[in-house]
Design brief:
294 residues; mainly alpha; 8 helices; rod-shaped
């Protein structure tokens, strides 16, 4: 048993020595402690074989060596714990440094990404502004083209419309002179009636006879009929002119550029009024307008 124990102890000592020289520092405490334990065991055996004297030291050499071994192993364990702690601290420091480096890298990447986003946003805003400007120009050109087409169409109808407007205007202007003459005669009649009425030298019957004679001379009945006829003609001429002007405005729509509900019957009627001079009773037009009810 002693031989086996000795061989096993030497093998363990050899392994611990190999671990120590490989660079693991705590192994030296095990080597020292195990060496002391072996020396204590050798002293105890030499005492049993009578090579060494029997005394307190030799009889207790194993216990003394064990105490020293336990102390050295405690030192080795503490040293190993310190090494592990240092390695843990260094690992944490490395992890912290890596984390800080990653954060710095993320911040740099975020900065670069924000710059690229800002540049792209600026480019998109400039492109959008350019497109808006182009669209506005296109809308303006389209509006001008539509207006030009409308004006071209109106230009083709100018001669007929001018003739159509001249007829009622000429009718009105031709009635102005006879109407002024008739109104003058009415004022003269009023003056004569006033003069006769305030004449104290005449009796009521004489006043009535003079007024009747004056009215007969002026032919008041015909005068009233003529005034009514002239006023009616001027009213019709003015109404006709207003209808033509309204039809032109509805047809051209030069003051509107938005979508809205419209009366198609009104549009057709105004168009027929404008085309009246071109038709000139050579074409018979039948209007069938439907009334929309909600």
């Amino acid at each position: 048993m002693q031989v086996t124990t000795g061989i096993g102890s030497l093998f363990v000592l050899y392994l611990s020595y190999r671990i120590m020289i490989s660079g693991y520092s705590p192994a030296k405490y095990f080597v020292y402690g195990w060496t002391v334990l072996l020396l204590g065991s050798v002293v105890f055996l030499l005492k049993d074989y009578g090579i060494l004297d029997y005394n307190n030291f030799t009889s207790n050499s194993v216990q003394i060596a064990s105490v020293i071994e336990m102390a050295l192993l405690s030192f080795g364990l503490a040293y190993s714990i310190n090494i592990l702690k240092q390695e843990k601290d260094e690992s944490q420091k490395r992890e912290l440094a890596i984390s800080l480096e990653n954060q710095q890298l993320i911040r740099e990447q975020n900065t670069v990404l924000e710059q690229k986003v800002d540049e792209r946003t600026h480019e998109l805003k400039e492109s959008n502004a350019s497109l808006q400007t182009t669209l506005a120009h296109l809308k303006e050109a389209q509006s001008q083209l539509v207006e030009a087409e409308k004006m071209a169409s109106l230009g083709q109808l100018t001669a007929g419309v001018a003739h159509e407007i001249n007829n009622p205007i000429n009718f009105v202007t031709s009635n102005v002179a006879p109407l002024k003459r008739d109104i003058k005669m009415i004022w003269e009649t009023l003056d004569e009636v006033e003069r006769v009425a305030f004449n104290t030298d005449l009796s009521d019957s004489e006043k009535q006879l003079q007024i009747k004679k004056f009215k007969d001379d002026l032919d008041i009945g015909y005068l009233k009929t003529e005034v009514d006829y002239l006023l009616k003609g001027m009213d019709e001429g003015a109404h006709r002119t207003a209808e033509i002007v309204k039809s032109l405005r509805i047809f051209s729509r030069i003051d509107e550029d938005t979508l809205k509900f419209a009366d198609i019957n009104e549009g057709l009627t105004s168009t027929m009024i404008i085309l009246n001079s071109l038709i000139n009773n050579s074409i018979e037009v039948e209007k069938i307008l439907e009334i929309y009810q909600e």
